[in-house]
Amino acid sequence: MHSFPASSADSHNRTRIHPVLASFVDEVCGTLARLCAYLMTLALMALGGIALWQHLPDVTTMETSPKAWSEAARTVPAFAVSQLIFPGKTETYEIFRHSEGGRKDVFHWSGTGGVPVAQLEIYRPGEEVDQVGSAAGYLAARMDPAGARELEAAGIIDSKFGTVILFRRIGITEAAHACLRFFKHVDEPKFRLSGWSCLGEDMPARRAAIGCILNRPVLLSAGNDTKFTELFARTEVRRSNCAIAGTPALSADWVMGADNPRLRGTF
């Protein structure tokens, strides 16, 4: 008896099984490749999440930094301002302390019905990070936290602390009636004067009001800060008459004008 038919059947079965095995192997390899890609994606996402998590403390610190300030009702006042500079206006004096040593002495003046008309902040930093950013942005947020932040330069004035930059809000149709902001940074000893004023019927009067605000603070106590005491002693020599402070003479230079500084001549 010949066995050729059996051999032919086995050979035929093998030729049918090989493609099935090859297809199965290909499918397994494809699945493994997709699984590896999936695992690598998860690993990359995990690494990215860890990197973001490491930055969260910095973000939290930035968000909670304003909460580090608290009112210090029992702290001894460091400054005084004459009650005669703004007759008929109510003055409020607040002191704020930072957990890392900073101090803010804030004077508020209000008119009829308690409407705020002016403010002065004297800031002496401690170890905290000063996150003021731009002077214009800081002043805009101080006066109107929910309002527009765009300010433009409104000239400069002279004071017993030196020249002070003025700002006003962009888009005011009548610039003469715009409230003015001011900002002065001193490097040694390090402190900052800032605030705003809506006092006065026109621009020269408002500039004069800010001149009064800046020229009238008197130092009562600086603790052990001898440099701060010496600075105020020197500034008292430069104090000018409140009635004319901040109001430039008719012959004043262009940079001291009542409006934004303008270049002389034409191009």
Mean pLDDT: 75
Spans of at least 5 consecutive residues whose pLDDT stays below 50 are 56-64, 244-256, 260-267
* H-E string: HEEEEEHEEEEHEH
Q: Give the neighbour order of strands across the main sheet.
A: 1-3-4-5-9-8-7-6
Radius of gyration: 35 Å
Tally the beta strands. Answer: 10
Main β-sheet description = 8 strands, antiparallel
Write down the domain tally.
Answer: 2
Write up this protein:
This protein is of the alpha+beta class. The chain has 2 domains: 4-63; 72-256. Helices cover 36% and strands 24% of the residues. It has 4 helices and 10 strands. It has an 8-stranded antiparallel β-sheet with strand order 1-3-4-5-9-8-7-6, with helices on both faces. Strands 2-10 form a two-stranded antiparallel ribbon. It is elongated and about 105 Å long. The model is unreliable at 56-64, 244-256 and 260-267 (pLDDT under 50).
In short:
The protein is an alpha+beta fold and 267 residues long. The protein is built from four helices and ten strands. It folds into two domains: 60 residues; 185 residues.
Keywords:
267 residues, disordered C terminus, 36% helix, elongated, two-stranded antiparallel sheet, 8-stranded antiparallel sheet, alpha+beta, 24% strand
